[in-house]
Write a structure and sequence with these properties.
By secondary structure, this protein is α+β, with helices and mostly antiparallel strands. The chain has 10 helices and 9 strands. It is 42% helix and 19% strand.
């Protein structure tokens, strides 16, 4: 079908799909040299026009975007991998030396990587960042499909000192998704309600279908307007995405999985405990795949219930 027979909305949808592939590729290859011709090939656009096209659609030049992602991912790894040498973290996001990394880090955060790590670890251990963690995760609140349902009262429940985390090899999953770009929290709740739910009902993808909530960015590091979130429904490989949805594959492989059951307040604490306490002592580290919350078929997601269930999934590789 030629582009002349497609609507402007369909054409924009195709541009978005291709650019999402590029952003995923960048995140997965931060430790490598990222060149324009390769990214243009990933997007199936002419390399001659790609740089200008990227800036127009993403709102940043390609160079600025890659530098920002490298620094932001490094900032997150400095905290969740406190025993990893700073040089190793610098190399893992594509910097050739500790000096170059330190200069870039200071330009972004106004302090050295070691000072950032000390400040953030102290803040996390005194729970001063807990509200930021809660704003990142627990986003999939939506009527009739309500993950993280909130009732009028919250129970005060102390989380166990030792988390029962399983190491599981997950198979790749085909999903159809909608992407929200902007602030997390209440806007994500509205996004599920106003964008995902009507589409899911129309496509007969009710609560008996597995769903995923993927928050790509940490709002304590990334500017709210640049935070990305995907609301996903697991679908068959031959599912035809329509109505603005985009298809992709969530990578398989080894994941640390914590089966959570509780309320919206407690899931934020679970994410914090998993990344702050379990991961640094586990002998594993994060890799380039995204973390996500997985809502299996039949999971309790009743919007009137005080509790819900999900699997907190963190992609790991040996330290």
């Amino acid at each position: 079908m030629s582009s002349s027979t497609l609507s402007s909305k369909q054409n924009r949808h195709e541009y978005d799909r291709r650019m999402h592939q590029v952003l995923n590729y960048i995140d997965e290859h931060l430790d490598e040299a990222i060149d324009l011709p390769k990214l243009a090939a990933v997007a199936h656009f002419s390399s001659f026009h790609f740089h200008r096209l990227f800036a127009a659609l993403i709102g940043e030049t390609l160079g600025d975007y890659v530098r920002r992602r490298r620094i932001e991912v490094a900032a997150m790894r400095l905290v969740v991998q406190p025993r990893t040498r700073i040089l190793n973290i610098a190399l893992s996001v594509g910097f050739g030396s500790a000096e170059a990394f330190t200069r870039a880090f200071k330009n972004r955060f106004g302090c050295s990587p070691s000072a950032w790590r000390t400040q953030q670890l102290l803040a996390r251990h005194t729970n001063s960042n807990l509200s930021q963690t809660n704003s990142k995760h627990s986003q999939a609140l939506h009527a009739d499909f309500a993950e993280h349902a909130v009732s009028g009262k919250h129970r005060a429940k102390t989380m166990e000192n030792s988390m029962k985390v399983s190491l599981i090899k997950r198979e790749p999953a085909h999903v159809a998704y909608f992407r929200h770009l902007g602030e997390y929290g209440a806007p994500i709740e509205r996004f599920w309600q106003e964008t995902y739910v009507p589409w899911a009902v129309m496509n007969k993808l009710g609560p008996d279908h597995a769903r995923y909530g993927i928050a790509y960015d940490d709002p304590s590091i990334t500017a709210p307007k640049q935070c990305r979130y995907d609301a996903c429904a697991e679908v068959s490989a031959d599912f035809v995405a329509a109505g603005g949805a985009i298809k992709k594959i969530i990578p398989g492989g080894l994941y640390a999985v914590f089966q959570f059951e509780g309320n919206v307040q407690e899931v934020g604490q679970a994410w914090e405990k998993l990344l702050r306490d379990w991961l640094p002592a586990s002998g594993y580290q994060l890799d380039a795949r995204p973390c996500f919350e997985y809502y299996p078929k039949g999971a309790n997601t009743n919007c009137k219930a005080e509790e819900f269930r999900c699997d907190i999934c963190v992609p790991v590789t040996p330290l």
